[in-house]
Design a protein that fits this description.
The chain has 162 residues and is mainly alpha-helical. Helices cover 58% and strands 9% of the residues.
């Protein structure tokens, strides 16, 4: 971070001159975004939403920058980037480091959960699969085959003692 960027972050932003569409001029504070707004800043960056970014940097409501000239919006964007881009980069690096640190634990937890689900559900699934397989087996013929061979269906169900 440059000393100017550090000062802007330290004092919450930097003042710049802007011009309204009606020709009036003013000075506004382009703010150093609080950490809680850095994700929103990144989201707007990805969406390429310049006016929304300018409004975020100024702390204005949506569509409030409609009154600014294009040059003024650009000036706000450039100053907002100068102040906030390094901070957003540091935020992304911290987030990446946290994810890399936590990800192995998350994977272990996922494996444990999956094992528990399989242990609990697998017996039920096995029963269902076996029942479906049994139901899909062709039923044996009701009478002897023409060749005269005996099939299980052709045998009496309760043979009498002989």
């Amino acid at each position: 971070m440059t000393p100017e960027t550090e000062n802007a972050a330290l004092f919450g932003g930097a003042e710049i001159a802007i011009e309204h569409n009606d020709g009036t001029q003013a000075r506004v504070k382009v703010r150093a975004l609080p950490l809680r707004l850095i994700p929103r800043y990144l989201e707007l960056q990805l969406a390429d939403a310049e006016q929304a970014l300018a409004e975020l940097f100024l702390g204005w409501e949506a569509d409030q920058a409609d009154c600014l000239t294009d040059e003024s919006i650009l000036a706000v964007l450039l100053e907002g980037e100068r102040i906030n881009f390094p901070r957003a980069g540091a935020y992304v690096e911290r987030k990446k480091a946290r994810i890399e640190k936590v990800l192995p634990m998350v994977r272990q937890i996922e494996e444990i959960i999956l094992r528990n689900v399989v242990e609990r559900v697998a017996p039920e699934i096995k029963k269902e699969v076996l029942a479906e397989l049994k139901a899909s087996e062709p039923s044996p013929p009701e009478r002897p085959l023409p060749s005269g061979r005996v099939t299980p269906a052709s045998l009496p169900s309760n043979p009498s003692p002989g």
